Amino acid sequence: MSVTEQQQPGSDDNPDGDPRNALRDRIAADSPTTRRDYLRIVATVSGGLAVGGLGVAGGILRRHGEEPGGKAPEPKRIAPRLLPGESLAFRYPGDEDRALAVRMDDGTLVGYSAVCTHLACAVLWRKDRGAEGELYCPCHEGVFDARTGEVTAGPPPRGLPKVVLAELDDGSVWAVGTTRSGESIEAGLCRQLGDDPALAARIGCPGTQGGAEGPAALAPGGPPARPAPVPASPARLAPVPASPAQGPAPAVPVLAPPAPVPAPVVSEAMAPGRRA
Question: Any idea of the CA torsion for 19, 20, 22, 25, to the nearest 10 degrees?
Answer without folding.
Answer: 170
